[in-house]
Amino acid sequence: MRIAVLSGKGGTGKTLVSVNLAAIAKASTYIDCDVEEPNGHLFFKPEGVQEEEISVKIPKVDNELCNGCRKCVDFCKFNALAYIKNKLIVFDDVCHSCGGCILVCPERALTEKEKVIGKVQKGVSGEVTVWTGILNTGEATGIPIIQKLLAEDNPQGDQLIFIDCPPGSACIVMESIKDADYCVLVAEPTLFGVHNLNMVYELVKLFNRPFGVVLNKCLEEDNPAEKFCLEKNIKILGRIPFDNELGTLNSNAEIAVDKNEKYRELFSSLFDTVIKEVHHETITNS
Amino acid sequence: MKIAIPIDEKSLKANVCVSFGRAPYFLFYNTVTKESYYLDNTAVASQGGAGIRAAQVIADHGVKALLTPRCGENAEKVLSDAEVLVYKSISGTAQENIDAFIGEQLNLLNDFHAGFHGHRGN
Questions:
Q1: Which residues of chain B neighbour A79 with C-beta distances below 8 Å?
Q2: Hey, are the CB atoms on A77 and B77 less than 8 Å from each other?
Q3: Cross-chain CB nearest to A84 (options B47, B81, B122)
Q4: B10 lies in some domain
Q5: Would you say domain A2-54+117-285 falls under CATH 3.40.30.10?
Q6: B121 lies in a domain?
Q7: What is the fold of A63-108?
Q8: CA dihedral in degrees (B2, B3, B9, B12; nearest 10)?
Q9: Are B56 and A80 a contacting pair at CB < 8 A?
Q10: In this structure, is residue B80 part of a structural domain?
Q11: In this structure, what CATH number is given to the domain that contains residue B39?
């Protein structure tokens, strides 16, 4: 059972929600797909960490074979190739590893070479298996790392997998949610928060994923994100208060449910609601 | 000598564009014949590597000097391989920059930025 936690922007509470739900679940897997800034491991402090480098294939040119036809230069939508003074230049950092230039080269002057773009780490924290994807700074895309994270981990039976997604709704998020059984959208109680919620709301609808919303940083006053959910008839899974103590625990990289019974109850209740929804959706769709 | 300037409009009175790779047009000017022509920048809507694409075009047009307020590292690599000198433009019109270049009042650009690749938000 894969539960993806996402939001339209960073700092909304994806990691807070996914880490604490995984901690409540006990035997579960937490996968940090926010490969540009993974921080779930700061909370879990996993032990016995093993890591594996992730590579992509990029073109390598043999200028002896290149006849300067520029088919590769014209083909590359990311402009990773230039042909200057009878020499082909490849910009490794701009290349998105599609392999198209190699296919279109009539002289077979281009071949593949491996380039490391980051790594995945696996460790254990109590009963939680913690996966972390790390993309090296400046790389074009973290998708190969996310593919590795999500392909690698396939526990048997009903074990829960919590996917901590990258922020936003770009292709890196699509990759993270495309095989999720359920999506938890985390929203802030501001107009800006509604705008960001709408982005991920449209995304999960586009991907036809069942979903619900967690309202984070709730205050006494009106909550525009709650209003949005009521208008669109979106299931509200739970509410997390705008709370100094919770914020402090979180900024000290503590898992709130392990530190305070109040938060254990809050996230247990959220967990129960999420699981009920997931089962409901699974039955409805089977 | 052929020079090129990224510009906001197709006119010698146009301002120099603040961006090289994402400029809407390029002005090409021959300092000997005083002839000029304009070109739409095909790189303007690129998903990435606009500077590389724009530099390729500049090189293909046989330009010897580029006058621009700024230029990224990747474009600089293409331009230096193509032996195109990059001068820092001054605020004002394309014509004022041409005059300043001919009057040898422009300096070579020496800080090439690392770009904003993938860092424009989500």
A1: 43, 46, 48-50, 52-53, 56
A2: no
A3: B81
A4: yes
A5: no
A6: no
A7: Alpha-Beta Plaits (3.30.70)
A8: -80
A9: no
A10: yes
A11: 3.30.420.130
Q: Do B49 and A138 touch (CB under 8 A)?
A: no
Domain containing B50: what range?
2-102
Of the candidates B118, B81, B43, the residue with the CA atom closest to the CA atom of residue A95: B118
Kindly report the pTM of this predicted structure.
0.78
Domain assignment present for residue B109? The answer is: no
Look at the alpha carbons of A199, A202, A206, A207 in this order and tell me if their dihedral is positive or negative. Answer: positive
User: Tell me, what amino acid is at B67?
Assistant: L
ipTM, two decimals: 0.89
Helix (H, G, I), strand (E, B) or coil at A279: helix
Interface residue B13 vs chain A (CB under 8 A): no
Each of the 286 residues of chain A gets a pLDDT tens digit; together they read 999 999 999 999 999 999 999 999 989 999 999 999 999 999 999 999 999 999 999 999 999 999 999 999 999 999 999 999 999 999 998 998 999 999 999 999 999 999 999 999 999 999 999 999 999 998 888 999 999 999 865 555 578 999 999 999 999 999 999 999 999 999 999 999 999 999 999 999 999 999 999 999 999 999 999 999 999 999 999 999 999 999 999 999 999 999 999 999 999 999 999 999 998 877 776 5
Judged by a CB distance cut-off of 8 A, whether residue A169 touches chain B is: yes
Query: What are the boundaries of each domain within chain A?
Result: 2-54+117-285, 63-108
Give the span between the Cα atoms of A89 and B84, in whole angstroms.
16
